[in-house]
Amino acid sequence: MPAREFLLPDLGEGLIEATVVQWLVAVGDLIAVDQPVAEVETAKATVEVPSPHGGIVTVLCAAEGETLAIGRPLLVVAGEDEEAPVAADPGSGPVLVGYGTTRRSTRNRRDLFGGREPATRDGTSATPARGAVAVASPVVRRLAKDHGVDLTKLRGSGPGGLIVRADVVAATRPAAGDEAQRVPIRGRRKTAADRFTRSHGEIPAATCWVDADATELRTARRRISTDARPIGLSALLGRVCVAALARYPELNSTVDVERGELVLHRAVHLGFAAQGRDGLVVPVVRDAQKLSTAELAAEMARLVERARTGELSLAEMSGGTFTLNNYGVFGVDGASPLLNHPEAAMLGVGRIVARPWGHDGGIELRDLVQLGFTFDHRVCDGAVAGGFLRYVADCVEEPMRLLADN
CB–CB of 101/88 below 8 Å? Predict the structure, then answer.
């Protein structure tokens, strides 16, 4: 039977490597065209990689936790392809460049492999055993990977020897005499560390703050939001940012260091922090300046849901020109965040809390929020940054200003 190498495909967005999180097949398994064979983690996301070949897996070219360069062999399959990869459709899942989709082939799988059933993700087919691959859920595997725990060396305490969360937690406790634990920095954590280091070292950033009365903003949200068309505070703040960037376009820019130029972006690709399945991510709303408040809210909600389920594509997390960072959801009042390189500015929003505040000639309990604005001092001076932040604060305090100015 001819053998075919499956090379780690181009995963897009200039990515150069990926780490094998877990194998979904083992040597001896029979696989179909477009069957996911491995879960890999890139600098942007964790994705399943489908094989463009069908046949018998003869070699796995990397161990779990090993990092491979794009274009290096991932696995070897023996056998003849009986069918080309199926075309993508709207419900077929994420597409990897040139490699079909994660949807299974439509041909009868038993016919494809001479009456034998190809391997499934849960290992239930009658194929050779997975050998040293430990039995654990994806969540437990993720926990083990993040803490550098080798699952093949653990004895599971769950039913049938299943490795459960408690087993991994116990393995992370230092043994007698151990003073520290070493956790590999790789994947998205490594990319984030590199980007933050570059941002801190390359961008002369400054931050200014202002307290704003968000009482009227909250009232406006309650009035315009419905069950059929929910609008959150983040969407309203995003709408304010878009309006402010129209007044101060130099803040929707990047610096081309090599050419010594300021690149002013016409489109506002609004990034915002969201809690993903594997940690914080920054999805991007494309052309936010073209969207109404309701459309912006709907798109942000869609991206948040995809982040929660771990389905965000690389394109949905790339190309931002300005970031809205709502760290108030963590219960903090303010922060001085690093810029999301190469962006020139970021608006930070603290928690909204009732505090005494001067209002209509008296002192009242009002809903206050601290707004922090971090900016690249190469693109503007403090007057521009202060003007941007003051306009944002004014819109928070008087939402009707948006209608008057736009």
Answer: yes
Say which range, 127-141, 345-359, 375-389, has the weakest mean pLDDT: 127-141
Alpha carbon of 247 to those of 225, 251, 325, 405: distances in Å? 27, 9, 20, 10
pTM above 0.90, yes or no: no
User: Per DSSP, what are the bridge partners of residue 348?
Assistant: 325, 372
Q: Catalogue the active-site residues.
A: 377, 381
The neighbour count for residue 214, using CB atoms within 10 Å, is 25
- Residue from 340, 336, 341, 346 nearest 388 by CA: 346
The confidence score (pLDDT) of residue 131 equals 39
Q: Domain extents for the chain?
A: 3-132, 134-184, 189-405
Main-chain dihedrals φ then ψ at residue 390, nearest 5 degrees: -65, -40
* Dihedral sign computed on CA atoms, order 325, 330, 331, 336: negative
The residue with greater pLDDT, 328 or 147, is 328
Answer for the pair 86, 95: CB distance below 8 angstroms, yes or no.
no
Amino acid at 293: T
Q: What is the DSSP string of 102-147?
A: SSPPSS-HHHHTTTPPPP-TTS-SSS---TT---B-HHHHHHHHHT
Q: Report long-range pairs for 390-394 (Cβ below 8 Å, ≥24 apart).
A: 390/210, 391/243, 391/244, 391/247, 391/248, 392/212, 392/240, 392/241, 392/244, 392/347, 393/210, 393/212
The helix/strand/coil state of 331 is coil
pLDDT tens-digit map of 212-233: 999 999 999 999 998 889 999 9
Instruction: Give residue-wise pLDDT tens across range 249-270.
Output: 999 999 999 999 999 999 999 9
Looking at the domain covering 134-184, what would its CATH class be? few secondary structures
Q: Which of 321, 297, 306, 318 is nearest to 237 (CA)?
A: 297
Q: Report the C-alpha dihedral over residues 386, 392, 396, 401, rounded to 10 degrees.
A: 110
Question: What are the backbone angles phi and psi of residue 224, rounded to the nearest 5°?
Answer: -100, -10
Looking at 3.30.559.10, 3.40.50.620, 3.40.50.2000, 3.30.230.70, the CATH number of the domain 189-405 comes to 3.30.559.10
CATH number, domain 3-132: 2.40.50.100
309 three-class SS:
coil
